[in-house]
Amino acid sequence: MSNHLMNTYARLPIAFERGEGAWLWDSEGERYLDAIAGLGVCALGHAHPRVAEAIADQASAVVHTSNLFRVPWQEKLADRLAAVTGMDRVFFGNSGAEMIECAVKIGRLWGHQNDIDRPGIIVMDGGFHGRTLAALSATGNRKVQAGFEPLVSGFVRAPFDDVQAVRAIAERDRNVAAVLVEPIQGEGGVRLPAPGYLKQLRQLCNQQGWLLILDEIQCGLCRTGKWYDHQHEGILPDVLTSAKALANGLPIGACLAHGKAAELMQPGSHGSTFGGNPLASRAACAVLEVMESESIAERAAAAGETILAGLRERIGDHPRVRDIRGRGLMIGIELDRAAGPVQSQCMENGIIVNATAGSVVRLLPPLIIDREQAEMIVAAVCESVERLDQPKKVPAGG
Hints:
- This protein is of the alpha/beta class.
- It has 2 domains: 16-41 and 295-388, Alpha-Beta Complex (Aspartate Aminotransferase, domain 1); 51-293, Type I PLP-dependent aspartate aminotransferase-like (Major domain) (Aspartate Aminotransferase, domain 2, 3-Layer(aba) Sandwich).
- The chain is built from 12 helices and 15 strands.
- It has helices at residues 37-40, 49-59, 72-85, 96-113, 133-138, 142-145, 163-172, 197-208, 278-293, 296-315, 340-348, 371-386; strands at residues 16-20, 23-26, 31-34, 89-93, 120-124, 155-158, 176-181, 211-215, 239-242, 253-257, 321-327, 330-335, 351-352, 354-356, 360-363.
- The longest helix has 20 residues, at 296-315.
- It is globular, with a radius of gyration of 21 Å.
C-alpha cells in the first residue's frame, strides 16, 4: 500500500481487479458478492455491457469540452431526468456533496428574493449531506464536523421524522427559507420516517413559502422501488439532489429544480468545470435507459421484499437485533452493539456489507441481483449475527 495517500480512509487490505454483475474478484482471485455496490453507486452492477459500451464509444470520440459550449449528451440527460421526475431544470456537477452545495445556494437565493437578509435552512438531526464545508455544516452528525470549525452558519436543526418540531421553528423563526431532508437517512442508519412525513413537510413548506429540498443522493434512482423515493408519497419537491448511481461509477451529480426554484440560477450564479461532460452524461443516459428498459425499480422492490422477509424470519427475534428496516434495496439491520464484527464476518464469507451509524449493518446491493443472490446475502448476514453470541475460539496452548 502506498504511503503517499492521505490517511482519510481505514481501508481493508483487499484490492479488487474486476467485476461482473453483482460479483467482484480481488487480486488473489477470491470472489465476493457485492452487497454495498460501491456505497450505492454501482446500481446496475459491475461492467454492465450497455454502460461499458457507451463509455468506450464516447471515450473514443470526445470526453470533455467544458460548459462554455453546448453538450448534446448533457441536454439529453437533462430531458430524461426531467421526464422521470417532473422537475423543470437541471444543473450537473460531479458529486453528491456538490449538488447539496448547489441546493443550498438555491435555498439562499430564494430567501434573498423574499427579502430575508440571512436565510436559514432547516436540516435534520442524524442527516448526512456530504463533506464539503456547507454540506458538512448541514449534516446532523457532530462526529464528522469536529475539527473543521468554524462551520457554515444558517442551518436550523430539527429532529428527523417530527413535523411538529418543524412547525415550532416556523412559529419562532421568520428567517427560514427552505427545508433540506433525506427521505431515508442512509449514513444515519437507514432510518425511514413515518408514512406521510414528506407529504406533511410539503404542505408546511407551501404554507410558509419555503422551498422543500430533498436529498436523494443515496435513496434515489430506483433503489427503493420508484425512480425517486419521494414518489412513494406522490409529492414533488422544489429542489432534488441526485448522484451516486447516476452514471454507475463515473462521477456525476444532478441538482434538479421545479417551478419557482427553477429560474433562480442565472449565468454566473454557479458553475462546474467537469460537470455534465460528454463522457459522464452519456454514461448516465445509458444507465437511465437500462433502468427503464429492464424495469429496475420493480426488480429492486421485489428483491428488497425477499431480503427483508428472509432477515425478519430468521433473525427478527434475535436478542442482538433491535430492528430490521428498509425499502427496496436500501436495508438496515440495527444491532444492540457495534456492527463491525458482522461486517468482518460477512467479508470472510465472501459477502461485502457495510457498517454505518455504529450499530447498523447496511445493505445497498446492486439493483440487478437475482433471487439466489438475495438469499445468499440473507444467509451471510444472519449467520454473522447468530455468531455474535458464540464464544471466541482460543488458540491451542493459549
